[in-house]
Amino acid sequence: MEFELSETQALIRDTAAQFAARTLAPAAAGLDRSHTFPRAAIAEAAELGLLGINVPAEYGGVEAGTVAYSLAVTELAKACAATTVALCVSNMVAEVVCAFGDEGQRERHVTKLCSGEYVVGGFALSEAGAGSDPGGMTTRARKTDRGWVIDGSKLWITSGPDAGLFVVWARTSDAPGTRGVSCFLVPGDAPGLSAGKPEQKMGQRGSPTTALEFDSVEVGDDALLGELGRGFGIAMMALDGGRVGIGSLALGVGLAASEFANRYAMERKQFGQPIAQFQALQWFMADSATELAAARMLVLRAAWLKEQGKPHTREASMAKLYASERAFAACNRALQMLGGYGYTSEFPVERYLRDVRVTMIYEGTSEIQRLVIGRDVVRGL
Q1: If you write DSSP's letter for every residue of 18-56 in order, what string do you get?
Q2: Which has the closest alpha carbon to 214: 260, 145, 154?
Q3: CA pair distance 233, 178, nearest whole angstrom
């Protein structure tokens, strides 16, 4: 892994940082209060190429690689985690279709994801009784003369009301566990598909999270992504990449909170001097700086392995686990550094804390990451 960024990586990082400062940061608090989906900001992100960072240029992407994607996500998340998670999921959906779709599916769908014509993409795997255990899903796809009919429901769908394309997992046979699960591409406006009421969430309120209902949703034979009955493998490979993205997002939020608190500590005076001069505060700063630096290395290592086409399941889980938990700790320290002000919405630190908490849950809980890592350690023995 090279520690010096390439020209392309630096350009993508700087483009994301400038967009974040110009467009995302000024709107973040308002989105949190109003629970409003940032359509205009996402359209601007599409124009900048931020909806297809690791997508081949022939399908409308910028083909900059996973390291550039990770760098961009961190910069975006410093400004607005809610907008960033919608961009992360959409990038993931575009990559999934590129990796497992045929040429027709890539040309038809990936170009629209990258351009923003679909607004964003959605990832529909979880169900009420099948979160950490996808083998327990009950959504079914039944074969017909014209293609497939999908019935069932999904839960915790990012951008549920706004996505123009969903990658959907459904059971296509009665084979036990995950062996009977297949993957489908379903347009967001398909008849019979409806999004539920957005969840009232603790954080990331500008990113609507809903249930999806599939009531005899008809799709053609060309909606099947990859091989019949092999959908679980697609989901696991997608989640490996998704964990790089969420680790990068968590890192960005943790950095934003720490940077804000450090600046505050230099300005806030007690006992005749800036509180940054007190050892207790410096230890907070030292712990957050060290842990977030380590998280950055883990995230970029996983991103580099993915970019090189090397196995990265264990590293992606390690990155997501550590970055999310240490970013939460950094946000918590930042709030403590601000004292009572940190607990008010006058300052953004309480929002950072609320926004970062879910990174220990989605794309696989911290407990699932430990399971993935632990099993891989045992295999190595």
Answers
A1: HHIIIIIHHHHHHHHHHT---HHHHHHHHHTTTT-TTS-
A2: 154
A3: 9
Active site residues: 363
pLDDT tens per residue, range 328-381: 999 999 999 999 999 999 999 999 999 999 999 999 999 999 999 999 999 999
Please state, in angstroms and rounded to a whole number, the distance separating the CA atoms of residues 40 and 50: 14
* Residue 272: both structure tokens together: 């005749």
* Residue 141 structure tokens: 């796809």
Question: Which residue range forms the structural domain that includes residue 83?
Answer: 7-120
Say which residues have a Cβ less than 8 Å from residue 215's Cβ, sequence separation at least 6.
Answer: 151, 192, 193, 194
**160 and 242 fall within a common domain:** no
Query: Using one digit for the tens of pLDDT, what is the confidence trace for 83-114?
Result: 999 999 999 999 999 999 999 999 999 999 99
Whether residues 86 and 209 share a domain: the answer is no
User: Using the 8-state DSSP alphabet, how is residue 230 labeled?
Assistant: -
- 78 and 114 in a single domain? The answer is yes
Specify whether 243 is located in the same domain as 221.
Answer: no
- In whole angstroms, give the CA distance from residue 65 to residue 299: 14
